[in-house]
Amino acid sequence: MKVLFIADPMASFKTYKDTTYAMMREMAKRGWQLFHTLSGELSVREGLVVAQAAAFEFVGAKNDDDHEWFKSEAKVQTALKDFDAVIMRTDPPFDMQYLYATQFLTLAEQQGAKVFNSGQAMRDFNEKLAILNFSQFTAPTLVTTRSADVRAFLKEHGDIIIKPLDGMGGMGIFRLIESDPNIGSILETLMQLDSRTIMAQRYIPEIVHGDKRILIISGEVVPYALARIPQNGETRGNLAAGGRGVAQELSERDREIAETLAPELKRRGILLAGLDVIGNNLTEVNVTSPTGFQEIMKQKDFDVAAMFANAVASWAKQ
């Protein structure tokens, strides 16, 4: 297998927890040829989607902070269709440059490239808005550009979460209660004077027990969730925001949500998705660069990376 990863600079990986690193390590163990490029190094030449791709090999991380765990060769311009699999792992925000990259990937797929997740799926499944397709599993939700709508929603529910549609890692998420003296300032900042669409959701108190990440690979549900538990005084459970990751078995509700979404995600060409569930409520469907592999692998001795590599090999043959 010859696999191209489109991802952020590898020297920036936190190897002790990075999911892309875990994917790469498993594939390297299998003897697959690995390549890396940045999303900004994709281009179209004479109608063909190409990347400035560098082959690399593992040299072994000496500790959690070792950024010299790989050795790269010179970059070579290569058509995406010449790889057995192309894995898109660039982190959000999902801005215009990200959108252009997904359009390149869709064109590459038309030329024969096998891209995971597909460009079309990443465009169709905004990680926040995707939950609107599964309203039976969500808390009361509002999507709007009008701050007056948010104020009315806050008056109705008394305690809400607001967030941008293009962030990651908990960035830009605020909890609002009616007595908050900074409501106006927060809405002006986040909504940019009613020119930016945001999502508001009723606050879910069960967040204190963790924002659960449930992984779905090739339509199959990973049997453990990663509960990301907020620090004291923090609303966000995201690991990037300081949350503590605790792997745990799925609840009946977790499994109901995951098994309902799994076949639809697979049908749409989504090889890997990460569902976010708080209490009994679905809050996000992550399809750009879902994380959580290493924490589950270390705490539950379940090899998520091997499950993912098996799925890549299977989908690449289709």
Characterise the protein shown here.
The longest helix has 16 residues, at 252-267. The protein is of the alpha+beta class and 318 residues long. The strands form three sheets. Strands 1, 2, 3, 4, 5, 6 and 7 form a seven-stranded mixed β-sheet that branches. Strands 14-13-12-15-16 form a five-stranded antiparallel β-sheet. A four-stranded antiparallel β-sheet has the order 8-11-9-10, with helices on one face. Helix 1 (19-29) packs across helix 8 (304-317). The two termini are 14 Å apart. It contains eight helices and 16 strands. The model has no long low-confidence stretch (mean pLDDT 94).
Order of helices and strands: EHEEEEEHEHEHEEHEEEEHEEHH
Number of helices: 8
- Main structural class: alpha+beta
- Could you tell me how far the N terminus lies from the C terminus, measured between alpha carbons in angstroms? 14 Å
Question: Could you list the spans in which at least 5 consecutive residues all have pLDDT below 50?
Answer: none
Helix content: 25-40%
Cα Rg: 20 Å
Write down the overall geometry: globular
Portion of residues in beta strands equals 25-35%
What is the typical, i.e. mean, pLDDT?
94
**Could you describe the largest sheet, including whether it forms a barrel?**
7 strands, mixed
Count of beta strands: 16
